Amino acid sequence: ADSIGNAIEKKYDEESQLRAREALIRYRKELDDAELDYTNNARGANALASVETYNKKVADIGTKYRDELSGNAKALRYFDLPAKSEESNFSTKLNRFTIDQHNIYADEVDKSAMQDVVNRAGFAIARGEDPSRFTSEIASINKSMLSRRGLSQENASGIEVQANKTSMDAIYKNAFEYSFAENPNNGNIVTGK
To answer: How far, in Å, CA of 172 to CA of 191, rounded?
Structure first.
């Protein structure tokens, strides 16, 4: 009778493992669908706004399967450890993707802002105005862009100086082009000094 009892106990344990495995297959499919949905829809400015919604969605998916298995404590245990690992992996991938998307969006905005400042400063120089009022705006945009690169303060400082110089070079190039466009016979640039 003991060997039959042990055999039955083993079958119950195997059934619990199978129920957990079957739930994990469906659970992982839902996680994959959620990840695909997020990466297709959470682009640029939408990424940060969407991350909490998708983290909640993942938690809800896990709760659904845990509730489904709640009548079988062994199956729930077999499900829970790999499910928690999947949730953690999903969250890590989601957060990494979100940060990357935010940085792409921020870089696009900063590049547009820099182009705007370069154009405005170039026009100002071409009109004989002092461009120094634009230097703090240029430095702020460059600093913003560099801070997303995760550089040490020492490395960032050297790159920031070069970026500011490059920006000023672009301003004077634009000023020359604007000045020349206004008066093709005059290649002289008024620097406001």
So the answer is: 9
Token reading at 52: 């909490």
The pair of structure tokens assigned to 66 is 């845990």
Alpha helices in the chain (DSSP H): 2-41, 46-68, 73-126, 135-147, 153-182
Model confidence over 88-139: pLDDT tens digits?
A: 999 899 889 988 888 889 989 998 998 888 888 878 877 788 878 888 888 8
- What is the rounded distance in angstroms from the CA atom of residue 171 to the CA atom of residue 177? 10
pLDDT at 193: 42
Nearest to 142, CA basis, from 126, 125, 165: 165
Quote the pLDDT of residue 18: 96
Which pair of tokens denotes residue 100?
């990357």
- CB–CB of 130/120 below 8 Å? no
CA dist., res. 5 & res. 15, Å (int): 15
3-state secondary structure of 72: coil
